[in-house]
Each structure stands twice: as structure tokens, then as C-alpha cells.
Amino acid sequence: MKKLIFLSLAIGLFACSKEKSSIEVFHPNVLKSSVQSQSPYNTVGLIHNQYLDGLKVGLDTCTTISSAVQLASNLAESDSIDFNFEQGVEIMDSVASIVQSSDASFSSQILYLYNQGEISVSLYSKLQPIGKALNVDDFSISGSDTLSEITSYFNDKLDYLTELEDSLLNISFSDQEEEKAVLSAISICRHSLTFWVGVINDTHHPFHDMLVDMSFDLGKTAKWNRFWESTAIVVGLDVLGGLAGVLGGVTIGFAGVMAGVASGLGVIGLLWG
């Protein structure tokens, strides 16, 4: 079933459908800002958004993971970010392996990492609340006031992530690398959520139709339920890509680029195998 879901996502990304109806959009400026943060790792989420948006030109021509990483590498070089192409390909190959060995959800992916001994029980427990934020089962729109309900839903998500971040900033980490991994993951999640809500609102953004196609391939009846599930999947891939970079020992800038590449590869279907 998992393979069928992944295959349907990949096949539908560039499919042309004259009967495809558009998802109702709303302006992301009604959302609370995800930029204000006291986290020392807030920058990684901003870099993610910058590079994911930069990949909108040329990503649709990429046919392999390495070609997408090369595209990101070219952008990083122009920004003087310390980026190693071979290491970038290795990180994205590992992300693809995790995705293909687990499930589309971030919760399943970090559980796989834990079971494989790739992350400690302490790190796993601190990443689990991010998986809760990306839970697709708690999304329900009554239809009476769609705009108000959706705005409230995503603002609640941002509030939850902000409160989670604040609580972690007030504890003492015994492991600096664990602190870096957890706070980077939350930063990417906050900024990525705002990014993709903006994409669904911007019908001219190159990723808009890709995400809408992905949403309509999920087979759910309610269009906004489909949108939230596809959004949760790509946001989770953002976080997974950045996390893989941090765990691989790369710089924050490098990790931010990897986060952007991961969801880009997910939305064009190259991570599903």
C-alpha cells in the first residue's frame, strides 16, 4: 500500500488534467509570522525557504537526485555557502533510503531512524512532537467558514511549534549536537509550513500545480484534507533533509540547503524510488 501511495504521488506530479479543479486558496499574510524567534538556529529555516524557492527554476528538468543537488550546489556557490556536492548527494541518497524504507510521514521516518540506531532515544523523544505537528488525522473542515477554519488551523500549528521551541530553549541540553538537531528541525518545520501555505495561495508559483496535483492524487474526498496531507508530507521531507544534514556534520547553511532539496525532490517524485 505504501508503494502504491508513493507511486501515485510521483505519477501525478506532472500529469495534465483538464478536469482538475483548483483548491480554494487564501492569503498567507493572515497567518502569524514564523520569522520571529530567539532560537540560535532560526537561520536554518530561513535558508531552507530561500533555497527551496530558488529551486523553482530548473527543478522540473531534474531527472536524478544528483542533478537536483547540482542545481542547489550552483545556487550555494553564488551565495558562498560551504557546500560539498558529493556529500550533498550522499545525504539525499540517505533521505531517499529512509523514505523508501519507512512511510510518507515524518513520525514514521524518525521511528525508522531510531530503530536503525541512527538517533538516540533522547533525540527521538524530542523530535516526536514535530511529528505530532504534522499529523494529518486531526484535520477537519466543516465547510461553514472555510477561510476562518483553515487560518485558525495553521495558526494553531505555528503556535504549537513556537511553544515547543520556546520550551526547548529553556532546558539545558547535555549534548550540543542534539540541541542543534532538534532546534534546526523545528526552525525548518515552522518556516517550511509558512512557505508551502504560500505556494498553495500563489497560482503562478511553479510549485503550485505540483502540490495541487500531489493533493488530488491522494484520493481523499475533501480537497483541503488532501492539501493538508500533501503539505504535511513535503514539510516533513524538509525537516528530514535538514536533519540528515545536521546529523551528517554539515554546517547550518549546508543543512538548510539540504532541507530545501529534500522537499523539492519529494514534490517531483524522485525520493519515492
How would you describe the overall organization of this protein?
This protein is an all-alpha fold and 273 residues long. The protein has one domain (2-12, 39-267). The chain contains eleven helices and no strands. Residues 1-28 have low confidence and may be disordered.
Radius of gyration equals 17 Å
Q: Secondary-structure element order, as H and E?
A: HHHHHHHHHHH
Query: What's the domain count?
Result: 1
State which percent range the strand residues make up. under 5%
Structural class: mainly alpha
Q: What fraction, in percent, of the residue positions are helical? A: 55-70%
Total strands: 0
Shape: globular
Low-confidence stretches: 1-28
The DSSP helix count reads 11
Keywords:
273 residues, mainly alpha, 11 helices, disordered N terminus
How would you briefly describe this protein structure?
The chain is mainly α.
List the SSEs and their pairings:
Blueprint: H1 2-12, H2 42-54, H3 65-78, H4 85-101, H5 106-115, H6 121-133, H7 146-169, H8 176-201, H9 206-216, H10 223-247, H11 252-267
Helix pairs in contact: 1-9, 2-8, 2-11, 3-4, 3-11, 4-10, 4-11, 5-6, 6-8, 7-8, 8-10, 9-10, 10-11
